[in-house]
Structures are given as C-alpha cells and as structure tokens.
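User: Please predict the structure of the protein below. I'd like the answer in structure-token form so I can feed it into my own downstream comparison script.

Assistant: Understood. Taking the following sequence of 360 residues as input:
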Amino acid sequence: MNQKIETRRAIIAIDALSPFERGVQRSEALGERLLGGLELYRKLFHTVGVKQETVRADAERIMDEVADWSPGLLDEMRGVASGAGVDLWQIGALNARTEVLSQALGTRPGECSTIGRVADHVFGVQTWDWHEELDPHWHLQSVAGTKRNFVGLTEHGMLSKIGMNDAGVSVFLNILGHVDDRPSGVPIHLLTAEILANASSVEEAVEIVRSARVTTSSALTIMDETKAVTAEISPASVVVVLPEKGTLAHTNHFLDHALGKGEKPGLYDPDSQDRLALVHSRLGRYPESTGVDDILPFLYSDPDQPGICCVPKPGATFGNRWATLATVTMENRKREMRVANGTPIDARAQEWFVMTPPAG
C-alpha cells in the first residue's frame, strides 16, 4: 500500500476589479520568487540562442498586439511589472515565452499529453512537461474580479496557463509546431487568460480563440459541463477538432490533416505520434471510462514506453532537461480542478490539491 504524502505548492489569491491592481497583487504575492523565474528565463533564452535584444524586440512587438486585442491584459502585465520593479518588456517576454522560444535553436519545447472525455459528464486530465529547472517557479492561483472567476496553474509572473472558471469552462494546453510560427501575435498563455476570465461556454471560448491573431501554434482542449473540443491553432488558421466516441486525446502534433501539412519537421516527431498511439491503445482496451480516476492510468509510462511521464535523460544539460512538472484533472460539472506535483505515477503517493473557482 502506497503511503500518501503531501507536497505543498504555493497558491496565490487575486481579487480586484482593476487589471492593474490584479497584476500588482500577483507580484506582491510572489515576491522574490518572480524575480527568480525571470532570471531563469533570461538564462534559458540565452542558452537556446535567442539574444536579449531579440527577446526585448519580440516582447515589445507582441505587447502592441495585445494592446489592440485586449487592453486589460496589458494593464495587468503593467501591474505585474510595477509590483516587481522590472521593465514591462520583461513581463511581456515571460507571458510570451512560447512565442519567443518558437525561434530557439537546437532545442525541443515541452511535451504534454491530454485526454478529454464526454460521457454522462465531462472530465479530463493533462500532464504538463517543461524544463526541470523551472519546477520551483510555478504556482496555483485563484482569481476574482474578472467577468468569470477562475482557478488555475501557471508560472510565476504569467497571467494564465491551465485552468477552470466559475461557469465550468476549462482549458488544457498542448504546444504544437508549424513552419510559419513566429513571435508576433497574441501569446497563447494570454489567450487562455482571456478565455478563463470571460467565456461561459465552449462556444464563447472558441469565439475568443478566433478573435485573436495567434502566430505560434498550440492546441487548446476546451470543455464545459456538456461539451469538449480541441482548438488547433496555427498561423494558417484555427481548426476545431470534435471528440471521437466521446474522447479527445492530444499530444504535440496536429490532428487536422491540412494543418499537419505545415508541421515543423523534427520538432516532436516521432515521439508525439508514439505517445498518442499509446494513449489510443489504452482507450481502445478500456473505452468505458467514467471519471478522472479511470483515465489517469492512461497517462502512465514506463521507461520502455513512449515518454508520457517525462524524466530528464542522464547527462542532459540545461535547456534539454524535460520533466513532467504537474498532472492536472478537471471535472467540469463539479467545478473541480485537481493538481499534483510530478507525473500521474507520482500522484499516487500524494494528496492532490483540489481547487474550485471563487463564486461570482
């Protein structure tokens, strides 16, 4: 019998009607931890060949785009920068780190795996894989004062990543790669912030996705109480992928055939396809999953299997030390998001952190 352990993770509570004040609250709650995360990203950008002057130029160009699309998000980043005592472009680069890293040399982005299910209720699970060194620099959050209150997991100084709001709308995130990816449009992490803060249904969330000019590819699996879709986003277009037999499964390659023609070669293949094939083989053997506890084992992997549970390779250096930093589940009707540190296998020995959005 596994002995349960508790692994604590910082949670910050944000509650203000003013976007700027929400940003200041975020910085004050994180304190020196935010500065530590900024320094690690400065080191990461340098390590993967993106010069600081390029990072700044990218961030300033992207913030101009955000100002036109959602001025409140820019105000909130201004608040973060003010509270942290740093230049705005540094917070912009942090929130646009996916876009900045799309031009990185000789490194692969993080690898994540997601399952969404539509049965008698809607539920899902995701692993979040990223640089092992950044594990101390993410937190949980509870945000109020926006149109829809929400909870989520995000990195220090970033407004959003994965989460669920008080309407039961949730977002999972998988990074993709397209040959036309470039650091210019609305950052994908700010797109998830806009969805969680405003969408009351899957349909409204998809409208928000389509309203943004996004130039770096990702897949957002969006769920509410009754529906689930995956929006595959690329510089070319947005394609909505519907469930097959009540299931959405996604890793890090395009499922839409037309978008797949623009897949960036050598970025995730064949690892992403192998991971997805493993998940589908399990879904085929056990198709009647009725809750998150049923589908969690579908994201286990042993050393001789495709790396759903991501562990750094021996001798890997900074910039290439991929690890599964967190496992996240959603149960939309219950408005419940659960987070565990590490892989789904690690989660068996932990007490999950359970979050529900603040009442509106």
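That's the full token string. The chain has two domains: 11-101, 113-355.
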